[in-house]
Amino acid sequence: MIENFLAGTAALFGDPFTIAIFVFGVIGGMLFGAIPGVSMLTLAAILLPFTAGLEASQGVMLFAVIYCTGTYGGAITAILFNIPGAPENAPTAFDGYPMTRKGLAGKAVGAAVLCSAIGGTASALVMMAATEPLAQWAIRNIGPPEIFALVFFGLAVASSVGGNTIWKGWMSVLLGLLIATIGQDPVGGINRYNFGLSDLAAGIAFVPAILGFFAVSEIFIQAEKRAFGKHTAPKFNVDFPTIRELWRYKIAVVRSVFVGFFCGILPGIGATLAAFMGYGEAVRWSKDKKSFGKGNLEGVISSETANNAATGAAMIPLLALGLPGGALTAMMVAVFQMHDMEPGPLVFYNSPDLIWVVFAAMFYANVSILFIGLIETKTILYLLKIPFHFLAPMILLLASIGSYIGRGLVLDVIVMFGAGILGFLLRRSGYSIPGIVLGIILGKIGEQNFAQGMQMVHYDLLTYFSRPICTILIIAGAITLGAGVYKALASNRASANQE
Amino acid sequence: MGNLSKFHILEATIWASIAIIFFVFSFEFNQGIEIYKFGATGWPRGVILMLVLVVIGNIFHQRTHGSSAQDGRVGVTDDELDGVDKSASSILNIVAFVLLPLIYAWSLKPVGFYAATPIFAALVIVLLGERRIKWIIGISALIYAILIGLFMVVLNAPLPQGTVSPFYDYSAFMLRMNNQLQHMF
């Protein structure tokens, strides 16, 4: 492994043009992740056609680097503006933004930098050491029933955070699942709920939905507060956390690395669920559950470690099985195809050089998050000094461009602003925006794997319980769901007794 | 009725309407799939059924608790605006601010990005309370220049050009300028 890694490093840093692409990917991913309104996906979508002119290893490496650094960059906007750069940064905003309101933005961002680097680097090391055996394990043990069970568990976790009540949490998730049914069904390709609009046949793209529900609704909320004289500018602060402060959360970091890696390795799941699960587990094991959502540093640490830990793991199903774990890894498949290659087991034998250049680049990208991230972060924190009424049009316009560029459809911009209005109204009524977004992202994956799983087990649901991983995940999801409903019913009974 | 208010009933009615609309429209694609017993409607109808059950649970919860948040919930947003003076002009301002982006999005097809963007930026700044003309024009121009510089000149991103003259002509002019600029370097 070390020989291969050194060979990959030599190939990466032996050619000035490859170095330039690497540096561009690191800085571009961080910047696009950290600019409110656009994301690493916007950059990736713009760059996709240009990768045809690069070598295959350079193109795939560029996207892998953008994936690592962009996942971290999205945490900055989540913390500073309550606008996650990507869905995997949504749980970061739960505690990161309240910390900004309290004048602790520097601590939150500093923790995000360090934990993203730790999570990503640990994941890259495991990826390098164990891609092939893990891929073999995944092939044998992970099938559609397991993926469906994990989606169920993830949705149960999502429903337990964000909404005012468990009911509103689930209503948010189910609304997301319902929105995800728009477009062709994943089994038979039959058009559903397109209401006569041909553009809707491909469904609701999740980039406009994310931008609308998070970025646009946040702008509306702040505009409303401003109109009613309740808007207060976030406090500016660049004090990073001390090593001693962060050391207190070592167990949360280790736990999130495991959670993130496990979620990342499963095809189609990706970093988003990893972040939610990392956050959910942090809450579950904490002695001070009530402090979460109000500015607990552990929330930021858990979410950011888990989502970056998933980036390396997401390469395993992509490279070993040819299955992308999210939008950006799906674009990487397109890069392979542009060069007449298919990701899958044969890549390891046909193009080992490519694989090790990508692995080495991901490792160094995660390490560089720590150094470049700390320098860049101090600069980005100055965004807090820009008055809201000058920042808002910029965010709205960047979000419009980010939505349009993905598919070149004006409908996506309309969907984004529609989602913004819906998100604004739902947030005012105590619903969970992350729940809706996770429902949209996991809806299609859940349906597809449920259908494939049912076909596999000949429509006998009990067979799911003969598969150990599937059983554990379903039970974990059922406990999360049951505990939430029990708490809600218990509080109903307590209120009735008081009356 | 307990703690149920008119708002709660309206809220439940809206959710019920969503469920009914999606259920009724599911008959439009009620076709079997040879390899899959539940067909194209199985999953959406399952989601609708769960949504109805959860809405019923929500009504029962609101009957005893009203709108208050359940104890121990994590990540509850603090977007309440209690005790503020909601004047008619403030509410109108919010309505205008919320509708403006939708109008902008609708205008992108006929007017195009290049012509609609500076006007939109200026209107957003005005609706957010800025009244100094120099600042409105200056900041709008700066935002426009940054976006054009980044997306048109550097990244060559395809943006909506509009279909109606003279907006389309303006977009064509901008793209010609960009072409000439690219040839210079």
Written account of the structure:
The complex is a heterodimer of chains A (499) and B (185). With 499 residues, chain A is mainly alpha-helical. Chain A has helices spanning 2-13, 16-34, 40-47, 56-81, 90-101, 105-141, 144-159, 166-180, 206-227, 243-247, 250-265, 270-285, 297-321, 327-338, 345-350, 352-380, 388-407, 410-428, 433-456, 468-498; strands spanning 183-184, 191-192. Chain A has a two-stranded antiparallel sheet with strand order 1-2. In chain A, β1 and β2 (191-192) form a beta hairpin. Chain B is mainly alpha-helical and 185 residues long. Chain B is built from six helices and no strands. Chain B has helices at residues 6-25, 42-65, 88-111, 113-127, 133-154, 167-184.
Topology:
The complex is a heterodimer of chains A (about 500) and B (about 180).
Chain A: H1 2-13, H2 16-34, H3 40-47, H4 56-81, H5 90-101, H6 105-141, H7 144-159, H8 166-180, E1 183-184, E2 191-192, H9 206-227, H10 243-247, H11 250-265, H12 270-285, H13 297-321, H14 327-338, H15 345-350, H16 352-380, H17 388-407, H18 410-428, H19 433-456, H20 468-498
Antiparallel strand pairs in A: 1-2
Helix pairs in contact in A: 1-16, 2-3, 2-4, 2-16, 3-4, 3-17, 4-5, 4-6, 4-13, 4-14, 4-16, 5-6, 5-13, 6-11, 6-13, 6-16, 7-8, 7-12, 7-19, 7-20, 8-19, 9-17, 9-18, 9-19, 11-12, 11-13, 12-13, 17-18
Chain B: H1 6-25, H2 42-65, H3 88-111, H4 113-127, H5 133-154, H6 167-184
Summarize the amount of helix of chain A as a percent range: over 70%
Distance between the termini of chain A: 68 Å
Shape of chain A: globular
Largest sheet of chain B: none
Number of domains of chain B: 2
Outline of this structure?
Chain A is mainly alpha-helical and 499 residues long. Chain A has 20 helices and two strands. Chain A is globular, with a radius of gyration of 22 Å.
